[in-house]
Amino acid sequence: MTKTLLAHALFAALAAATSAAQAETFRTEKHEVRVVTVAKGLSHPWGLAFLPDGRMLVTERPGRMRIVAMDGRVSPPLAGVPEVYARGQGGLLDVALHPDFARNRLVYFSYAEPGPGGAGTAAAMARLSDDGARLENLKVVFRQQPKSEGGNHFGSRLVFARDGRLFITIGERYQMELAQDISVNRGQVIRIEADGRIPADNPFVNRNGARPEIWSYGHRNPQGAALHPQTGKLWTVEHGPAGGDEVNIPLPGRNYGWPVIGYGNHYNGRPIGVGTHKEGMEQAVYYWNPAIAPSGMDFYTGDKFPGWRGNMLIAVLKEQMLVRLELSGEKVVREERMLRGIGDRLRHVRTGLDGYVYLLTDESDGRILRLEPAR
Of 179, 258, 317, 361, which shows the fewest CB atoms inside 10 Å? Predict the structure, then answer.
């Protein structure tokens, strides 16, 4: 048995030993689900990545990154994390591993970076030390330009495409009109090389006055992103205001409409822009009105919940639930709202290496939860 398989077997044994005492059960359309607390005592956990041995790399919004062992033990904070703007929705945000992490040990993370003018979303790469205690040789690969005051709408998820390029979702920093301005970084999906260089085939590389790192624009606050397991296309979910949360498939150079078009209303009740449609602006694949506040998302690719395979799972903050979307091609054909009554804001969802589903709760005493089949 390989070391990785042995580690997963040990993880399964530890999980079975703790499940009975810590679990609660929910019935869903496809499966009866047991929710197990894997770890707790985290301060607003935001991002989650699985190391090759099954351990979890977790970010906490106040500015800490930790490794969580398979038995739930939480490490001290890793050294080497830069200063973050930990106000409002800002702080240390997403984390992702380089596709060749097993060889190069490179970790990528996004954060609200303080600086002249306030703060902005940034993404950095660093090497995880051999002992897992610190980040080394840090390099910032993207900075939102310009920075601005306030603590809202930073985005941000990190997703590596199959070609090794890095997608970064960024919010419009609550400066909604700038989401239509491609000379600045507001409300966009960014696409860069893993080392921060601009891909030559990005849609605005040769346009005067445009930021060359932009992939798509007209977004509001996209906090979820993942690659479709069959097509390899990037899918995102983003917050609307009082209504108009969206699922999108961002395509190069396309305008997704915020704040000119949208579904629902602003917080003060007035309608969004000119309505729901305008020539030259893309329609969402799916939307919610009223808003549910979707955050992290993933496509389920494991084997523990066969009825969910290929479905989109979305962690929901405001309504404190997990949403499951069934797809037919690029259309949503069914929505199920699961784990109602769980009692926590759900920040992120990931399929684990073991095929279970993992959730982060956005609380001051935040938890890592694991979903298992109840029987």
Answer: 317
User: Residues with catalytic annotation?
Assistant: 153
CATH of 3-373, one of 1.10.275.10, 2.60.40.10, 3.30.2000.30, 2.120.10.30: 2.120.10.30
CA proximity to 294, closest of 167, 157, 187: 157
190 CA to centre of own chain: 14
Residues of the chain predicted below pLDDT 50: 1, 5, 9, 12, 14-21
- Return the closest-CA partner of residue 189 out of 244, 249, 264: 249
Q: Tens digits of per-residue pLDDT, 16-35? A: 444 444 579 999 999 999 99
Nearest Cα to 225, choosing from 47, 38, 41?
47
> Model pTM?
0.94
Whole-angstrom distance, CA of residue 168 vs CA of residue 181 = 18
d(CA 98, CA 114): 25
